[in-house]
Amino acid sequence: MAWIFLSIAIVAEITGTLLLKASDGLSKLWPSIGVGIGYATAFTFMSMSLKKLDVGITYAVWSGVGIIGAAVGGVLFFDQHLSKLNLIGMAIIIIGVVVMNLGGV
Predict the structure, then answer these.
(1) 14 partner at 20 to 30 Å CA-CA among 6, 38, 44, 85?
(2) What tens digit of pLDDT does each residue of 14-40 get?
(3) Are 73 and 18 in contact, with CB atoms under 8 Å apart?
């Protein structure tokens, strides 16, 4: 169940981050409300996952997947582009998260 909670936290964090971009500096009401809901949901579910998962693993997965999700969301929703160097960086993040999970921190 802890991994499900972490997955919900990750989706909520990515959503909050993308809505932060859409809020135009928190100047648009509905995206700004979504930012608050997204981040509140993310931290609530991450805290629930931390009852069973190690903090290092939890944070590595949460931040790593969040970075990649935000980057992909930027491409899909905001016409942003990823360079080869960006893609290499994301691959390194994925490798790091996998290594941390295999190593058990």
Answers:
(1) 85
(2) 999 999 999 999 999 999 999 999 999
(3) yes
